[in-house]
Amino acid sequence: MSSTEEKNLLLGGLLYPKETHSVESLKFAREFKVKDDDILAVTYPKSGTIWMQEILPLVLNGGDLTPINTIPNWDRVPWLEEKRLEQIVDQLKSPRALVTHFPFNLMPPSFHTSKAKVIYVMRNPKDILVSSYYFHQMATFLDDPGTFDEFIDKFLEGRVLFGKWTDHVKSWRRAKLGDRIMFITYEDMVQDLPASIRRISDFLCCNLSEEVIQNIAKCCSFKKMKTNPLSNFSLVSKEYMNNDKSPFLRKGTTGDWKNHFDSQQLTRFESVIHKELEGEDFSLPWSL
Ligand code: A3P
Predict the structure, then answer these.
(1) What are the residue ranges spanned by the domains of the chain?
(2) Per-residue confidence (pLDDT) for residue 203, from 0 to 100
(3) Which residues are catalytically annotated?
(4) Residue 250 Cα, ligand 1 centroid: separation in angstroms?
(5) Which of the pair, 5 or 88, is modelled with greater confidence?
(6) CA torsion, points 71, 72, 75, 78, in degrees to nearest 10?
(7) Does the complex come out with an ipTM higher than 0.90?
(8) For residue 72, is the peptide bond before it cis, meaning its omega torsion is within 30 degrees of 0?
(9) What's the CA-to-centroid distance between 1 and ligand 1, angstroms?
């Protein structure tokens, strides 16, 4: 058995880590009853998921710090598809906030008939790839990424968690959700966090004052999250996530890809991504 098969479930063509996902958890997600006032932050892995697990409870609670100071990120805004959801779902207070890495086509049927709102967070795929490469080194429940060059091939071929980045983005950009969906980028959030939080707050009709927005932005900064053990996975045993090898909150910047790709790798990467997005009626918010 290869290391990929040993550590991952392969279902419907997508890979899920066995440590956090099971056939039962995926069935639970499929049968999950999405409520009209639920909020789903949707991300391709390494696009800013835990950042949303910090921002959403603060926005929804008018800036009250209690959730981020008392509940670990994976329980305050749980993953729809992970094993943990079934154990804590009854403790979630409405409006419930969840995160998911599912492409649009895997969302539960109840999502489609609900009015639940979606915040789709997009990130430059080159930075996603770099972030994921380090994540595979620190998370022992994930398979060995191989060399950076090998990992580029895996990423471009979709032999990584949740499949191809282009398929994920296309699925959500093509979804006809009207004003139920808001698109934001990781880069927007890095560049101007208070303005991004304002957009999220307006989208969720939270009506927060400028002072509250500024306070939330301070609490969700990279520096602050790095010191909150309930937000940075330092509570997880080193056996599973070795923050000494590479911290989960690693750099928190844009453009780290420039320190990793050589010119041949860039050409290969860009040509595949451009080809796969050809003919789409949306453009990428950054030049690749
Ligand atoms: P890097 O590895 O580039 O640092 P996810 O939560 O989807 O797995 O994404 C993890 C990435 O989001 C990591 O990127 C992490 O550092 C970054 N991140 C998390 N919180 C952040 C914050 N407050 N500010 C900037 N980046 C953040």
Answers:
(1) 3-277
(2) 98
(3) 101
(4) 7
(5) 88
(6) 130
(7) yes
(8) no
(9) 32
